[in-house]
Amino acid sequence: MTAEELLQRYAAGERDFSGVNLRGAKLQDAELRGINLNGADLSGADLSGADLSGYGYAQRIEPAYSDLSDANLRNANLSWANLEFVDFNRSDLSGADLSFANCEGTYFNDSILIGADFTNVKGGYSLDGADTGFDMES
Question: Among 32, 40, 112, 132, which residue has the fewest nearby CB atoms (within 10 Å)?
Answer without folding.
Answer: 132
